[in-house]
Amino acid sequence: MSAIIILTISSLLILFFGFSKQRGVILPLSFIALIASFAMLAMGNNFWSEYLTNMISIQSSSKSFALLICAIAICIFPFFHELIKRGNEELADFIGIILLSIVGAIIMVSYQNMMTLFLGIEILSIAMYVLAGANRRSVNSNEASIKYFILGSFASAILLFGIALYYAATGSLSVINPKLINSELYQFSLLIIFSGFSFKVALAPFHFWVADVYQGTPTLFVTVMSTIVKIAGFGAFAQFVLSQNSVLPSWINWFFAFIILASMFIGNIFAYSQSSVKRILAFSSVVQSGFILMGIINLDANNSWSLIYYLTAYALASIVTFIVVYFVEEQAGSDHLDSFAGLSKSNPVLAVVMSIALISLAGVPLTAGFMSKLYVLRNINSIGFTALMVIALVLAAVSFYYYFKIINAMFSPSGDRRWSVHFSYSAVLVFITIAIIFLGVMPGVLHGFLG
Amino acid sequence: MLLAIILILIPLIAAGLCFVSGKKIAPIVGLFGTMLSFFYFLYMLTVYNVRHELMYNTFFNWIPEIKGIFHVGIDGYSIIPLLLTQLVMLFSLLYALNSNSNKPASYFGLLLLTQAFLNGFFIAQNPITFYLFFELALIPIYFLVLNWGGAERKKAVFKFFIYTIFGSLLLLAAIIYIHSAIGANQLLSWKEFYFQKFPMHVQLYLLVAFFIAFGIKSPLFPLHTWQANLYSNSDKPTVIILAALMSKMGVFGLLRFVYPVMPAINVYQPTIITICIIGILYGALMAWRQTDMNKLLAYSSLSHIGLIAASIFVMNVQSIEGAMFQMFIHGLCVTGLFVVVGILESKSNSSNINDTSGLARIEPRFASYFFIITLASIGLPLTAGFIGEFYMLYGLSIDNILYSLFAGISVILGAVYMFRFYQSVMFGKLKNESLQSSSAINLNTEYILAIIALLVIIFGFFPGMWIDFAAFSFLEYSEYLPN
After folding, report:
1. CA distance to partner chain A, nearest, from residue B302 (Å)
2. What is the mean pLDDT of chain B?
3. What is the enclosing helix (H) or strand (E) of B37?
4. How far apart are alpha carbons B460 and B58 in whole angstroms?
5. What is the pLDDT of residue A132?
6. What is the mean pLDDT of residues B61-86?
7. Does residue A124 fall inside a structural domain?
8. Of residues A366, A397, A404, nearest to B136 (C-beta)
9. Could you tell me the residue range of the domain that residue A358 belongs to?
10. Is A420 among the domain residues?
11. Is A334 contained in some domain?
């Protein structure tokens, strides 16, 4: 709770600093706020929740999700230094908005009441609509913003409809210990609520916004979109499933299986033929969402760590890939595959970290991506969806194709001039890459850390 | 201290040193690393007790949440592929040192990385560890071919990569299934896996997954289409690893994984062996018609590996003895032959067999090494190739005389295409005068060829010890075979 308060206050302060001449304090202040909120979450007393009539509770799994969100935000944060290039007024706006979006994300993963959930989703989403349109003079950015806004509002409305039905079916907005008054209505509300969630985390067939929005949005903000929004979305999803476990109908597994299958097919097949790296990564994020959903099937308090592990692995790899895309875009002016040609010559560090991140996304052993896939696949196999596991793995061969297409391009011998990024950026990227490998070599560590 | 895991660590550390050291030092570090692991392995071998089932173990709970155990150790089956790996990697590195094409430090780092993962693959003692190295070994090879090699290397390596990944993902599915099926018990070693009794339809699915996974890696007949292009477009040190070691990964994987699905194999044996025999004959016939030396060797490899796979599928003591021995000898021969091709290519700047001729007169020593290796590859008596092929064909004939009859045709065809190759390159008129002026084989390549020629003759005269290794390792696991 203290984390939410710290972040809200500091984001408001930062918005005000935008008007003053004290702009140098914006980045340090926000970084300190993030660190402080991470520390508050880690110390973790649930002191405030009773004053809020138990509408929010940061405990056990929601605490892990919230910690993960803060940690990932801290990892991305050093790269926001690049925003200074865009001029000072904008810096304050964007940093303030990003901090607010983190507030929304933390609320989303720690709600105990459907109203709080909706509040969190809206705080996060509106922040994202603004970030998507950050390049005001670019047509693509405007398109992304409008598309995301219209489709996102639509999804929010659907979710709200589901919440209303949920209220009608259980007689309460609280998600704790639901008592079914009307079972059919409840099942219908589940369908609608899950569709709303699926939109937020870009699962097929609710993925239509993802490629255009990722392509149009400034790449630095795509990093936020593909990590924090996804963790928050899946965190909310997981919290809901965990709380409803006792009353979930059995067909819901088949519903999930359908969505997983659709995400695997659509994501892989659409990513196959793209030539823009951001679009490839956008469609691959649909596939990754499908894998993450495998961790949500049959979720209970004992195996939620596999979901958190997957989200960690995905978020780390995703930061590296999008940041590298950002730097390449800065140099070459586009995110087309051709701009990546010869990156191994022109900037070997970026090429190597990008390769390792892509290898992790593809799921080669000794990277975090492999372990996470192993966990979720074992999970769906253990509840009898062996055929789904085989299909998912066969389609994953396609994903190797497009991930390695990027690696192929980077290692092609086109002798470009050397360019480099600031040492500290490279250092952070290398650090994240080491974390990816470390999680893959010693997978037990994260679980031990979460307890 | 004798631990199998050190066989992974030595090349791994050497690879790390190669990556950080300069262009001048990296080859020396790399060579030192392979030498060290070679002699370390030889020392292990002197202490190894063939009747002892599993030695030099290391295991720990690697993935505690799902009881995924990392387990490496040396058993009878791993001895021969391990010896082959150390030898071939040494040759490959020596050859890389010799080719004066200015290889950067990362090249040697990747070679050493390959060795580490291959060693890990051959000493893996349970399916999860096995899969780990099965997929890891692909990554350095991918980068080796991607960065150094012929004109069409990118397309070729990409095809190979996607094929192999497809197979290994099927293998992963099978392993996850097996791992879940074993349930609460830990999957510590192969024996727990072999002990499983799966229902017939599950066995069939598993068999298909294994056949595709290892059939792509080997490659076996219908899954070989990546092979010829890749072999002709990779760098010679890389293609030596591909042909001599990566292909053994496939057949070795079959050997490790067929035990629990033996009942299904016995039911479908005629179909499976027929596929293998088609591959054997197809490979031999295709090799006959090739004019590109690399492709000729690729197809001859397809033929030989097909025979090894067929004898693994019939699974009796003679066929396994033959298969293990032939794995070793085929690895040596194909290394020697690719070194020969490398020398010929650098002499005439072409890989077409018609562009070189009459070399025997000006390079007599080279011609004689080449001749001995050719004979061993054909399987002439008193060379090592004969022992392996004889045992395998004999093992096949125990099940059905027709199997060995048809598979035996490949030996005749082998003589046809290898002698055609030898004849057109070595004899006839010296077409190209520039061949005469260019320098003879240098010291490095001469060492490689001489050692291989010597080894194939020595093993031809004294195969006993190695055959025994294979026989004992067969007995070690024979209790898990259905009667």
Report:
1. 24
2. 87
3. helix B26-47
4. 35
5. 92
6. 87
7. no
8. A366
9. 251-451
10. yes
11. yes
